[in-house]
Amino acid sequence: MKPAGALRTLFMLFLPLAFHMECARYPLAAGGGTDVSNAKVSGVIVRSDGAMAANTEVKIIVSSYDPLRDGAVADSLVDTTDSAGAYTFARVDSGSYNVQAINSNDRTSALVVGMHIAGDSVEIPVATLHRPGAVEVRLPDNIDTVNGYVYVPGTMIGERINGSASFVIVGDIPAGKIPPICYTVTNNAGPARSLSDTLQVPSSGMMTIIYSAFRYSKKLFLNTGSDGANISGNVYDFPVLIRLNKSNFDFSQAQGNGNDIRFIKPDNTSLPYEIERWDAAGGQAEIWVKVDTVHGNGNVNAINMYWGNAATTGASNGAAVFDTADGFAAVWHLNNGCGDATVNNNAGTNYGATDTEGIIGNSKKFNGADSIRISGLLGSPRSVTLSAWAQLDMRSAQGSEVISIGDAMGIRMDDSRSGFGTEGTFHVSTINTDTTFVSVISNKNLAKTGWHFIVFTFDDVNRLQSLYIDGRQNGPINNNAPINYSGVGINTLIGKHGNGKNNYNFIGRIDEVRVSKTVYSADWITLCYMNQKAPDQLVTFK
């Protein structure tokens, strides 16, 4: 078969050969399903301009059908549309079917997939004819190039490999959604291999599926329902944390440094990712994947993870995940060094903090004299979100600073003043060395209570300030004074007060510190907590 159409648009889909995925096959009964219902099936075919498509051949095909193995479709399941574009099948067994239409006069086609036939009468959705497309299937190594072939189950679409070692082109594929493409060999009684997820074929175009040596895949579901992350709204451009361990991932199947890991949306769009830690020997890894939309209220969210390619190079890119266009000013994973994951490269200088196991990979441990200093105030942002994971072992004299932008804004744990506790604070004014700050207080002292996720937001537009502890909001409060960066410390500090005072030094561990020049929603913050805490309540492996 040859690809039709004058246009040739190349879509590069980095999809692996997923050996554990199978194209199911079921016994055929008279070209239909597995039990008899004698349903009447009807529908209408139209042209792309909306006119009724007469004289179009229509076949209703059981979804497990293999066009190169199973022979011709029964005459009773083939019809030609009348002048009104209508077709009818008088008796169809119950089961799952696809409907394929071809108009040989103008070489257009259509495909309706996943139709469940049951009962007395079923009406198929209107199908529109378009110029067909084609798929170039890049073949994996070690396949049978003599007896092997690829096909689209439940259609008349298939192509023998005929000795080709690198690729095969499957043409005349109806534009739009098609089932996964499968590979098998002649006289194979077992299941066929699935070579792709569901595809969206372009009209008059070519899409290419590349199968260099990716051998494995796994589907990851993002659960936002009440039994998962429990958020009601959609969250956009969100860095999802993926934790791999020996119970959910076989590290021996991937490169030793994780260079062959990939993440792709169901529509075959590649997703940016950053490997924070890959410890194959220890059987653990933490990876950040940017997902453009996490649907709230329990709606379906899924991404695919692929690996098993000895030849490919790494694509880890923190700057693409923590994009400054999404508001990120600095992200310090504190896994080993003090580097900034964003393109801003606001790397910190470490003054004594040591590496230790954290809530996400490694973290930094502070002994009360240690700190990490980042030069400057990150542009003196007006609207800000500060966040960090912190485990406080012992409070310093007056409290324990997690992060301080100068001392213009910061997160402090266990302020010694009565009723303050853990707080977010910002500087309003300095007059004759007399400083004025506004704090959102929690009245919660957290020393010796384990890890906590603390977020402070300052909304300069609406003059609202909020504090979140472990996803729960304290506030918001409304203070009309803007943040004031005059008369404060000149650097950003982690584990120490921003103007150099030592009575707020931190004793304990700090991990995943972020500064953003935007105010994130309550759903965003809750999603961070539910995804990053142990155990994770967002990501489910299938």
Overview of this protein structure:
This protein is elongated. It is 3% helix and 45% strand. It is built from two helices and 40 strands. The longest helix is centred in the C-terminal third of the chain and has 11 residues, at 522-532. The protein has 542 residues and is mainly β. The protein has four domains: 10-22 and 134-209, Immunoglobulin-like, CATH 2.60.40; 24-128, Immunoglobulin-like; 216-310, Immunoglobulin-like (Sandwich); 324-532, Jelly Rolls. Residues 1-22 and 25-36 have low confidence and may be disordered. The strands form eight sheets. Strands 25, 27, 28, 30, 35, 36, 37 and 39 form an eight-stranded antiparallel sheet that branches. Strands 3, 4, 5, 6, 7, 8 and 9 form a seven-stranded mixed sheet that branches. The protein has a seven-stranded antiparallel sheet with strand order 26-29-38-31-32-33-34, with no helix packed on it.
List the helices and strands and how they pair.
Layout: E1 10-13, E2 22-23, E3 35-46, E4 57-62, E5 78-80, E6 86-103, E7 108-117, E8 121-123, E9 127-128, E10 133-138, E11 148-151, E12 158-160, E13 167-173, E14 176-178, E15 182-185, E16 192-194, E17 199-201, E18 206-209, E19 216-222, E20 235-245, E21 262-264, E22 273-279, E23 284-294, E24 302-307, H1 318-321, E25 328-332, E26 349-351, E27 354-357, E28 362-367, E29 371-374, E30 384-392, E31 400-405, E32 409-415, E33 421-431, E34 434-441, E35 452-459, E36 464-469, E37 472-478, E38 492-494, E39 507-516, H2 522-532, E40 539-541
